[in-house]
Amino acid sequence: MAKDKNQKGGSWMDLALPEDFPEPYTEERAEEEEEDTEEAAKDRAVKCSPTLLRMLKAAESRWTPHFRDKAELSELGLKATEAEALKTNMKIQVSDQQEEFNKPPTKAGPRPLSHSVSQSSADSFSSVGSVSSEDECPPQEKLQKTSQGLTDFCIKNIKQAPFGRKEIDIAQQGMPALMILRKRAGGEKPLAGAKVVGCTHITAQTAVLIETLAALGAQCRWAACNIFSTQNAVAAALAEGGISVFAWKGESEDDFWWCIDRCVAADSWEPNLILDDGGDLTQWIYKKHPSLFKKLKGIVEESVTGIYRLYLLSKAGKLCVPAMNVNDSVTKQKFDNLYCCKESILDGLKRTIDVMFGGKQVVVCGYGEVGKGCCAALKGLGAVIYVTEVDPICALQACMDGLRVITLSEGIRHADMVITCTGNKNVVTREHFDRMRSGCIVCNMGHSNTEIDLASLRTRELKWHRVRPQVDHIIWPDGKRVVLLAEGRLLNLSCSTVPSFVLSVTASTQALALIELYNAPAGRYKQDVYLLPKKMDEYVASLHLPMFDAHVTELTEGQAQYLGISKHGPFKPNYYRY
C-alpha cells in the first residue's frame, strides 16, 4: 500500500476497496479447508526431523476436538503419527516422554520442565515458584542434615543449598570491602574466640557478611529479623557451610520468637557478641537470659528502632555492656538509608503492584534519609509528593526541595499511596484508614511494622483478601478496598532485594564494629552507646572507591597543619553534618 501511495496522482482515498469480502470463518469452512489441506499434503511430502515432527503432532493434539473416549483420541493420534512416519521414510518411536509431553497441564503443579532446561534454571524455579510436599511441612517438624552431618539448624529445605551458594557468589562480586577484609585480616583472625549471635535479614548480601565473620575466626549463629525477607536458598547454603541458621520465609510471630530462642541456645552455647537489626534479639536476651546479657562484650545495632531501645536502657541505667551505634554512622546513613532506599523503593513497589506513578498523589511520612530517598525516586517518576514531619529542620528541607509539608489528616482523603519512613509507632491509625479513598496503597519503608496500626484492622467487619504474595486487600463493609503491602513490614526487603554494593558499605561497618568491641582494651568502652569512630567510617568509604577508579587527593603537611588535622584523617569532626 505504501508503494501505491507514492505513485503519481495516487492517494489513500483513491485506493479501491474489494468488492467481495471474505466469508465468516465457520465450522463447515474449517472442515473444507482441512480436507483441501489433506489432499494437498498427499501431493507433496515434506521431510522433517523426528523431534520437530513430535513437537508438531503434540501441538496439533491440543487443538483437536474432544473425543468421547480418550482411548479413541490416543489411538487416532498414534495412527496419524505412524502414517506420517511412513510417508517421510522415518522411524518414529513413541516413548513415555512423548506421552508425558502430550498431557495437558494439571492443577497439581507446574508442567514438567523439558530436559533442555539448565540445572541452574531448574534450581531457581524450584526455589522460587514451586511448592512441594516437603516445603508444605513446617520446618520445625523436619529432620534435616547437611552433607557434613550438621543438624543444629532449622530452615525450609536444605536441598536448595546449591542454588543459594550461586546467589552468594554473585553477591560477593558487588561487595568489595568485605572481600578485602577477608584478605587483609583473614590471616590474623581478629575475631578468633568470638561467639557472634545475629538477628538480621538473611539474604545473599548478609550471607557474605556472616561468612566473612566466620573467615575472621568467629563462631556464628543466626536468626532473621523479618518474617518475610529471608531467602530460603541462601539460608540453606549457610547451613550447608556450617552456620547454625534458624529462619525461613513466611514465619509466623510464634515461629519468629522460637527461632530467636533456638539461635541463642543459652543452655549449650554462650555468645559474647550481638549483631542486631531492630533490637529484638537484644531484648530477648535481656529479658529471658539476664545473666548471659551481663557477660556480653558488646552489641552492634544498625536500625533506628534498635538504637532507640538501647538508648532507653542506657538512660535507665540498665545497659550493662557497651553498644555500637552503626545506624548513625555516616556511611550507613547516606548509602544504606538514602541511596539504597532511593532505588529499592521502586523495585519493591513495581514487583507487588501494577500501577504507574506519574500524577499519583503520594504521602511520605518522615523526611529523614529514608524519606528523602523515597521522595526523590517517586518525584522522578512524576508523582505528586506530600511530606509529613515532626522535626522543623527536616520539614524545612522538604520545603526547599519543592515538596508540600502537611499533616496526614489533611492529605489522607486524596492520597493514592501512603509510605511510612519514621521508625515510630501508630503513624497510620484506623482513623486514617477509614478516611482513605478506595484503592489507596499503604506500605512501610521503616524497620518495624509498628508504624502502621494493624491491630485495629483485624476486626470482624473488615475482610482480608490475599490477592498475591505480600499484597492484601482490606475490604470495608461498603466495598472500599485498601491495598496493604507486606503486612506493614519493610517493603524493599520483604518484596524485592537491595543492591549488593550498598549492603557492602553497611556490612563493612558492622564487621569493623564487632572487631573493635571484641579487641578493645578494658576501659575503652563503658556501659553506654557509642557512635562508630570517624576513622572507621572513612576507612569503609576508602575500601569502595577502587570500584569507581576514584583517586583521592592527599593533603600536604602544610595544608594538614592549617586545618589542624592529620593528613591521614579523620578529616571531619564528629559534629560535622555531611
From TrEMBL:
Entry's family note: Belongs to the adenosylhomocysteinase family.
**Entry protein name:** Adenosylhomocysteinase 2-like
Listed under GO biological process in this entry are:
one-carbon metabolic process; S-adenosylmethionine cycle
What does the organism's lineage look like at the top?
A: Eukaryota, Metazoa, Chordata, Craniata, Vertebrata
* Keywords recorded for this protein, A-Z: NAD, One-carbon metabolism
- Record keyword Membrane present: no
| Domain S-adenosyl-L-homocysteine hydrolase NAD binding, first and last residues per copy | 337-498
Q: Does the keyword NAD apply?
A: yes
